[in-house]
Design goal:
This protein is mainly α. It is about 75% helix and about 0% strand. The protein has a single domain, classed as MetI-like (MetI-like fold), CATH 1.10.3720. The chain has 15 helices and no strands. Helix 9 runs antiparallel to helix 10.
């Protein structure tokens, strides 16, 4: 009984901490949105007081005068292209690892496991020189190629999913005359769609918020992404506080709403591809 009581106390304490953290996060986001609706003069002269007025004037200026939609589309293009490459590469690698036995298979899986511990930013210098030699600097391709190489987590999730698939499904496809490739993209890949969907949402947050790689590889202003433009405004906060707040809201809220809407599907997908004891 004491063991059960201790577990309940631990669960209650953990839930309390999560509620406190969640409330604090919601408060910060709400305060950010609230201040983004205020005028710059009111923000600087009456920071903690009641606002004189609230409006979307700064938002309109961001899209009309600052051309913020251009940087938003840059980020969206990089996001979609990177996700497509990640899904294609990770699903094919994971299918081979999950369905076949071959020499050095454990070593290959260990390689992807180590990839979770060593981010691509550790090798930024050789990556920069490589992209320079390939004449890909200041192009979206450099960022897309580098970020799409981070497939360790998708590979591990999908590998476990394909490994647990009943062998009868694969065998029936072969008996029906389906080729190896057709079996993969017509049967196995659609069955893995919950895991793929979860991977896309989780990776979307990482790619959208990526700051370091675009900073290194995208030096022209026309190619910059949303996080880089947010840094541009925050670097001179007193002169562009209203723009910095508005840009932060536009950069944060859409991807956060997307994550919240599909949170249940994300959990279901991770559970489908997760390792079960």
């Amino acid at each position: 009984m004491n063991g059960v009581s201790e577990k309940k106390k631990s669960a209650t304490f953990a839930s309390l901490l999560l509620w406190i953290y969640s409330c604090f996060t919601v408060f910060v986001l709400g305060y950010l949105v609230y201040n983004s609706l205020r005028q710059k003069g009111d923000l600087l002269s009456n920071t903690f007081g009641l606002p004189k007025s609230l409006g979307f004037g700064t938002y309109l200026k961001m899209f009309t005068e600052q051309k913020f939609h251009h940087y938003f589309l840059n980020s969206a293009f990089i996001l979609v292209a990177t996700l497509v490459l990640i899904v294609l590469l990770a699903s094919m690698v994971a299918y081979a690892l999950g369905r076949y036995k071959f020499k050095f298979k454990n070593a290959v899986q260990m390689y992807f496991l180590l990839g979770l511990m060593f981010p691509a930013s550790l090798g930024v210098l050789p990556l920069f020189l490589l992209m320079k030699d390939l004449s890909l600097l200041n192009s979206y391709a450099s960022v897309i190629l580098v970020m799409s190489a981070g497939i360790s987590m998708p590979v591990l999730l999908l590998t476990d999913f394909f490994a647990k698939m009943p062998g009868e499904i694969y065998e029936s496809a072969i008996l029906d005359g389906a080729s190896e490739w057709k079996t993969f993209y017509r049967i196995m890949f659609p069955l893995a769609s919950p895991v793929v969907f979860s991977i896309c949402i989780v990776m979307s947050v990482q790619i959208w918020n990526q700051f370091f790689m675009p900073l290194i590889f995208l030096q022209d202003d026309q190619h910059k992404t949303v996080p880089l433009i947010v840094m541009k405004y925050t670097s001179n906060l007193m002169l562009s506080m209203d723009k910095a707040l508005t840009a932060s809201v536009i950069a944060t809220v859409p991807i956060l709403i997307l994550f919240m809407i599909f949170s249940e599907k994300i959990l279901d997908g991770v559970a489908s591809g997760g390792v079960k004891g």
